[in-house]
Design goal:
5% strand, Serine Threonine Protein Phosphatase 5, Tetratricopeptide repeat, 45% helix, 6 strands
Length: 473
């Protein structure tokens, strides 16, 4: 595939300050002279670890990505819109500018992650491994991570520059433009197919990508593209693998003592109380200031009361997924690090779940309902409902079944970053959000241009003749 642009500002940031935003990269490959590095299996493994560690950054799964998909929707809001310079408040009220820190952070660190991946893929074939299967697996992991980065980018910004080779000289890439979304999706599909044939069913290391994760992500990509036949094939393969199942008890899904359980298909690892710093401050960021068991809550991504009130009173997810204090509802999926008085609340150990089995079951339920297979759809939906202590949903009306599935996705996956993308892929984001704003008395109305975020201003400024802004910004 043609070698495309990796713009100068982004790349200079990669080479000079990969760790300047976060301190989570313990094996940063930028600390090495890349021209004479990557000559041994151990050195390549350090590069693979670094590619994973980028996911921990605050601008990616450490903070921004889980909040993005809910704050932008009718699921979550900001306690104070101007907190942290209004970076989430702008998303909440659809006033996002090209200078927004969330928008620029996701773009920049996604491409940093892509550069790590491309470096590994560019070098790995020339390196001797003790076990050739391990070498193939590492390549599969990198194909998955690149697909994940581009899936996030294309859903947020639309067409973006496609980069598939390691960048050595940033100055070589001036003048390259954004690729069409179709080109980005073609790479994502190709990367995931390459990942599936290389990855194992089971990994002996928590946090590593598996075949099931690649199939699950591929199914979600096909769902986004409206290719329901291929989506169903991939998602059914995840179920048929018998590698995953719902946790019997709701409380076990996000328990710190039960991470990477049978429901978790892929998650980004975090660890508290490690001197080198592998913890997360998301629980502080996602808590209201009034939360009694977490001090210093920033009030980002707190649950809308209108959504909280949709949980039935007997729903077991109340008090385990979500709770309320006063008039502020918030999620309990991220656990505070307060086991001892010395523990730092900003050093949480909760993994960030990217894909889990409940998500896959509900997507399959949606596909079955769209096909008119309502019995199958309800059986899948009721697995999730019953686990939450709710009775079976029994309507035989297709529209009502689809509506129940959409509601169940809101309740089950709240604060995991899915809602906005669900609305967009179902082509209901504009009417849903406009009706929501009317119901809350907010003088906000969105249109087609709001379905994509602006290209960050610093990316436009770095190469203004080549980098085109999205309409309306």
């Amino acid at each position: 595939m043609k070698r495309y642009k990796y713009i100068l500002l982004l790349l200079l940031g990669y080479w000079s300050c990969v760790s300047c935003e976060d301190n989570l990269d313990q094996n940063s490959i930028t600390n090495k002279n890349v021209d004479n590095y990557y000559e041994t299996e151990q050195e390549l493994e350090s590069a693979v670890d670094a590619a994973y560690s980028v996911l921990q950054r605050a601008s990616l799964y450490g903070l921004y990505l889980p909040a993005f998909g809910d704050v932008l929707s009718d699921n979550c809001t900001e306690e104070v819109a101007n907190n942290d310079g209004g970076i989430f408040g702008q998303l909440d009220f659809f006033t996002t500018t090209p200078s927004n820190g969330v928008i620029s952070g996701i773009w920049r660190n996604s491409y940093i992650g892509i550069q790590f991946v491309n470096t590994v893929l560019n070098r790995i074939e020339a390196v001797a491994f003790k076990d050739e299967e391990t070498k193939s697996i590492r390549s599969g992991e990198m194909f998955f991570l690149r697909a994940l980065h581009y899936f996030n980018l294309v859903r947020i910004y639309g067409g973006v520059p496609v980069v598939t080779e390691e960048t050595i000289l940033p100055s070589d890439y001036f003048g390259q433009t954004r690729d069409e979304a179709e080109t980005v999706y073609a790479l994502i599909l190709s990367d995931l197919e390459a990942a599936i044939v290389r990855l194992p069913e089971v990994s002996n290391l928590e946090g590593k990508v598996t075949k099931g994760a690649a199939r699950a992500l591929l199914g979600k990509v096909y769902m986004t593209l409206g290719d329901f036949e291929n989506a169903k094939t991939e998602l059914l393969a995840v179920v048929a693998s018998n590698m995953y199942q719902l946790q019997t008890e709701i409380a076990n899904v996000f328990s710190l003592d039960n991470e990477y359980n049978s429901e978790i298909i892929f998650a980004v690892k975090f660890h508290s109380n490690i001197p080198t710093g592998e913890g997360s401050d998301a629980v502080v960021q996602y808590s209201p200031s009034s939360r009694s068991d977490v001090s210093g809550g920033k009030g980002h991504n707190i649950i809308e009361l209108s959504l909280y009130n949709l949980f039935p009173p007997n729903d077991k997810r109340l008090g385990t997924y979500a709770t309320i204090e006063g008039n502020k509802a918030y999620n309990l999926k991220w656990k505070p690090n307060n086991e001892t008085d010395e523990d730092d609340p900003n050093d949480g150990g909760s993994d960030v779940v990217v894909i889990r089995y409940a998500d896959i079951l509900l997507l399959l339920a949606e596909l079955e309902a769209l096909d008119g297979n309502l019995t199958e759809a309800k059986q899948l939906l009721n697995q999730v409902r019953n686990r939450a202590g709710l009775s079976n949903f029994n309507s035989n009306n297709q529209a009502e079944v689809l509506e129940a599935i959409a509601l169940e996705r809101r309740l089950e996956l709240v604060c995991e970053g899915h809602r906005w993308f669900d609305l967009v892929r179902r082509n209901v984001a504009i009417p849903t959000m406009n009706n929501f704003f009317i119901s809350t008395g907010l003088n906000i109305s969105i249109d087609e241009h709001n379905l994509l975020m602006p290209i960050p201003r610093d990316q436009i400024n770095a190469d203004p003749d080549a980098m085109e802004q999205n309409p309306g910004y």
